[in-house]
Amino acid sequence: MTAVFKAAEQIEIGLAIAPQLVPDDLAAVAASCFSAVINNRPDDEDGEGQPTSAQIEAAARAAGLAYRHLPVPSAEHTAQQAQAMMLLVGNPAQPVLAFSRTGRRSAALYRMGKSLP
To answer: Is the pLDDT of residue 90 over 60?
Structure first.
């Protein structure tokens, strides 16, 4: 488990936010009772150092986690993106870990989604 996953922060019952995960984090995510991972980063946002969505998805599925990819730019989030995030978070009885580069994007999408009618 990397220090990044250790930095995950619960922002709501059933939802925690983390900075960028790497494939090696996913077994620890599953062992921490999360049921799903949401990746809010577009592929190649930071170049070669960033794992691809396919790499994260493979590790998530191997760990028994559901995986969702909702790539959103780091700025100018839309109501449609926030609504999609709310649908992916779903049932708070099924704990979800969402991540972006620093975690702030995932948190902002969720908070924006909660504020929509």
So the answer is: yes
Predicted TM-score of the model (pTM): 0.92
Give the number of residues written for the chain: 117
Can you give the chain as a three-state secondary structure string? Answer: CCHHHHCCEEEECCEEEECCCCHHHHHHHHHCCCCEEEECCCCCCCHHHCCCHHHHHHHHHHCCCEEEECCCCCCCCCHHHHHHHHHHHCCCCCCEEEECCCCHHHHHHHHHHHHCC
Q: Using CA atoms, how far apart are residues 32 and 95, in angstroms rounded to an integer? A: 10
> Can you read off the two tokens belonging to residue 9?
């922060």
The number of distinct structural domains making up the chain is 1
Beta bridge partners of 17: 9, 98
Among 108, 97, 37, which Cα is nearest to 69's? 37
Residue 102 belongs to a domain with what CATH number? 3.90.190.10
